[in-house]
Design goal:
about 210 residues, 7-stranded mixed β-sheet, 3-stranded antiparallel β-sheet, about 25% helix, globular, binds guanosine-5'-monophosphate, binds magnesium ion
Length: about 210
């Protein structure tokens, strides 16, 4: 199933009713991109695809911390509604420093043992694919998974080809830096219900100036 395309141009009129975020973030975002309601409905569709593909199996649903956490929780609940069995595992990976991908990734902590398991990596966003192009070989070699697929909430429309293809994709978004619904900028903005494009004020914000 193809991802839902979020167009390059504005789709939501700026409506004050949509501005549901901590008040100290006022002015930190430039465009509302995807509302939580749309994310939840898309997540339910992704869970159906996974259930069709993994029926009778117990895949390991692997959460890539921290950004994927809200998507992960809602995906697991949607799988529960479909009576799909699964195992839960977590991995912590760091690749971004501010707005720029560093091109290097670091697994922080232990790599889970996934020997003989069908693994579904749950990601928040696929950008260049650098992170996953490093992570997947680590999982193949160190954790001995028997199969690995990627389920990402977002994928960016970038000019160069992505290094990794995700089989399950929620939304295709413009090549802009987005925050909210678990996605951060220097650890801020994970605590927002919707996905937004960050503004210059948001980028310039000193976390120490916030409560
Ligand atoms: P990639 O390695 O595919 O270029 O980037 C993947 C990782 O970088 C994601 O898992 C995410 O942590 C981070 N990332 C990439 N694009 C964005 C973005 O627009 N916003 C945020 N908050 N993180 C991003
Ligand atoms: Mg991530």
């Amino acid at each position: 199933m193809d991802p839902i395309i979020i167009p390059d141009e504005e789709t939501y009129p700026s409506d004050t009713a949509d501005r549901v975020y901590p008040p100290e973030y006022e002015g930190h975002f430039s465009r509302l991109l995807i509302k939580r309601e749309e994310i939840l409905s898309r997540t339910a569709s992704l869970a159906e695809l996974l259930h069709n593909d993994y029926r009778g199996k117990r895949p390991v649903i692997l959460c890539v911390l921290k950004g994927s956490t809200p998507f992960y929780i809602n995906l697991l609940e949607a799988l529960q509604d479909l009576t799909q069995g699964y195992y839960m595992e977590y991995i912590r990976v760091k690749s971004y420093d501010g707005l720029e991908t560093t091109g290097r990734i670091k697994v922080e902590g232990a790599v889970p043992n996934l020997e003989g398991k069908d693994v579904i990596i749950v990601e928040d966003i696929l950008d260049t694919g650098t992170t996953l192009s490093h992570l997947i070989p680590i999982l193949e070699e160190q954790s001995k998974a028997s199969s690995i697929e990627v389920c990402t909430l977002l994928t960016k429309r970038i000019s160069e080809p992505q290094k990794v293809k995700a089989k399950y994709v929620g939304f295709s978004i413009p090549s802009k830096f987005v925050i909210g619904y678990g996605l951060d900028y220097n650890e801020l903005y994970r605590d927002i219900r919707d996905v937004w494009i960050i503004s210059q004020k948001g980028i310039d914000c000193d976390p120490k100036s916030l409560p």
